[in-house]
Amino acid sequence: MSLIYFLLWVIFNGRITFEIIVAGVLISVLLDFFVRKIIKLNLTLSNLWKFLKIFPDALFYAVVLLIEIVRANLLISKLVLAHEIQVEPCLVKFNTPLKTEAARVALANSITLTPGTITISLEGNEFLVHALDREIARGLEGSIFERILMRMERRLNA
């Protein structure tokens, strides 16, 4: 991995000098040590294959998240700029069929990143979410985030 880090270092610097090479070697070795020992990330061909299997879904997830953030921003702006603010804040409790903790945490973070909602609690499969308005709360259970994450879980286990 150090070699890959070094090659990326050289490519991103755009020029080759003695200082860049020395710094690149040093940074590459330190980064490799950090990834292996501190983060305990085991970069094997098996793990790379798993990542490549879910990469299209992960990319799609990121695009959907950005779209949902923009949509929620527009909805919140509409609520704020209305002459009479008529919001119905609510707490929504729901269970998710997601099996892995990583997928549940990704869903909780996605909910919190979307304006107008915040994940208050995640215990096991049960979510407690505060929504600024009931209209926002309607799409929480069975959301597109949940469907994409379930597909990613299936691909990882296949």
Q: What would you say this structure looks like, in words?
A:
- The protein has a three-stranded antiparallel beta sheet with strand order 1-3-2.
- The chain is 64% helix and 12% strand.
- By secondary structure, it is an alpha+beta fold.
- It is elongated, with a radius of gyration of 21 Å.
- The chain contains six helices and three strands.
- The protein has helices at residues 2-13, 18-38, 45-81, 101-113, 134-137, 144-157, and strands at 90-95, 117-123, 126-131.
- It starts with a helix and ends with a helix.
Topology diagram in text:
Elements: H1 2-13, H2 18-38, H3 45-81, E1 90-95, H4 101-113, E2 117-123, E3 126-131, H5 134-137, H6 144-157
Antiparallel strand pairs: 1-3, 2-3
Helix pairs in contact: 1-2, 3-6, 4-6
What is the average of the pLDDT values?
Answer: 88
| Structural class assignment | alpha+beta
- Pick out the low-confidence regions: none
Q: Could you give the distance between the termini?
A: 27 Å
Strand order in space, largest sheet: 1-3-2
Envelope shape = elongated
Strand residue content: 5-15%
The biggest beta sheet is recorded as: 3 strands, antiparallel
The succession of helices and strands, N to C, reads HHHEHEEHH
Q: Could you tell me the number of beta strands?
A: 3
